[in-house]
Structure formats: C-alpha cells, structure tokens
Amino acid sequence: MKKIIFYSIFLIFHFNLFADVIKVTAVEYCPYICIPEKNKGLKGLNNDVLIEIYKKFGHKLTFEYMPWQRAVNELERGSYDLTPIIEANQYSKITLSNNVFIKYKISCFTRKNTPWSFNGLKSIGNLRLGVQNGFDYSSINPEFDKYIKNETEKKSGKVSIISGEDATEKIIKMILADRLDFICDNEGVIMHFIKNKKLQKNLKQAGVLNLDINYVGFSMKSKKAGEYKKIFDDNIIEFKKSEIYKNLLTKYGIEDPDIKDKN
After folding, report:
1. What angle (nearest 5°) sits at the alpha carbon of residue 223, between those of residues 67 and 63?
2. What is the pLDDT of residues 61-80, one digit of tens each?
3. What span, in angstroms and rounded, lies between the C-alpha atoms of 123 and 45?
4. Are strands 60-65 and 21-26 parallel, antiparallel or unpaired?
5. Which fold is adopted by the domain 103-211?
6. What confidence tens digit (pLDDT) does each residue in 110-150 have?
7. CATH number, domain 2-102+214-262
C-alpha cells in the first residue's frame, strides 16, 4: 500500500515538474475559438481539442484573445507558443502542424432583402465588402484575395478593412446599417452570431467562396515549438476518431467535413 501511495505521489510530482504552461494567442472566432466570459464559459471547439490533447502530457494552456493581426505579430515575436487556427502559406515566421486541424466553408452573407448572391468576381459589381484586418483569402480563393488587395490599394471604397477583436460583429452591424453590403467569412462563425443575436430575419447566406483548411501555427521563436508540434501531429488523427471529439462537435453544433464524408 505504501508503495502505491509513493508511486502515485511520484507521478504527480513528475507531471508537475515537467508540465509546461503553453501560451496560446487567438482572435475570437466562436464557436471554434470563444472567449469564455462572453460565451457562458465555453472556450470553443479548437481550444477544447488542444486542451484535451496536451493535458495527456501534463501541459496546461493559457489563452489570450486579441485582433488577428496583432495575434500574428505576437506569435512571430515569440510572445506566445501557438495559435489554434491559421491557413497555410501565409507567414514565414510561423511553422504549421503537418496535419490539418479543421476544415470549414467560407461563405458570403448579406441582408435578407437583397437578391444578390456571390457567383464570381463579376457578380460583385459595386457592392461594398467588409474584411477583417489580417484575414487572408489567398489559400481560399486567390482571385478574390487579389480583388481585395487591388480595391484596397485603389481606395475605391468597395472594400473596407475592419480591425479589432470584434471585427466580424462590426462588419455585420455595418451591413445591417447599409454601410456595407456583404461579408465572406467562416460560415459556422457567422451562423453562430446570427443565431445568438436572433438575426435570422435580417441576414442570409449568399454563396460559397471555398472550403478553408486550417492548421495549428507554432512560433518559430518558441524553444519548444518542435515538441508541441510533434504532440499535436502524433495525436490529432486518433483524437478525431474518439467519442470525446464527436461530443465536442455536438456541443458546439459544428460539422467536420472529414467526419461527415466518412459516414
């Protein structure tokens, strides 16, 4: 009995001694990344998955939420260890997980009474687009990304870059106030916002840009980036087969295309 107690104490001491506090930075992107204080304690699917994966190795995660461009800058500086959502081929100072974290649709949304729907660049005409500062569409729809950069450079007024942690909410409010006409962003995030704010009668989905593929981004200046990356890559595929993951998808009302395709 004494040996069992001693061994248990040893294990607890061992985990505490070698446990890390992994610093995570992200922009609010609920239901994938949620600020608990604003969402009844919910952290979001991506954050919950990371917590489950890293706690097996005794590591704890702390989360700091900020505007996306600032989050990227801080990650590149090494102020944080990782971000739980990032597209490929965007940032030279951030290394990505080898395995995909999550896929989701990027869809356009506009006012309910507007007959318009996105069907290629020509369909945009003179409509005004709202874009979150730092949001990059190059891996989603290169032509759309080029359009944004060209119109922004020309200062045509057809593209507005909006900053802040609540940039998506700001854009939607501007659409409702007829100061902008549409937004193209994560369909799950926009639908979550519409449902929570009871805006089903005010906004509608208006076409799909593409499927967005996201990874975990690790700071190249983090001394343990390689270790944290390996833990994620070694565990995410099996974790997605688990009941815990399926329960998390249900909890947040999210469909994972990879899981859906296999059913």
Report:
1. 30
2. 999 999 888 999 999 999 99
3. 34
4. parallel
5. D-Maltodextrin-Binding Protein; domain 2 (3.40.190)
6. 999 999 999 999 999 999 999 998 888 988 999 999 999 99
7. 3.40.190.10
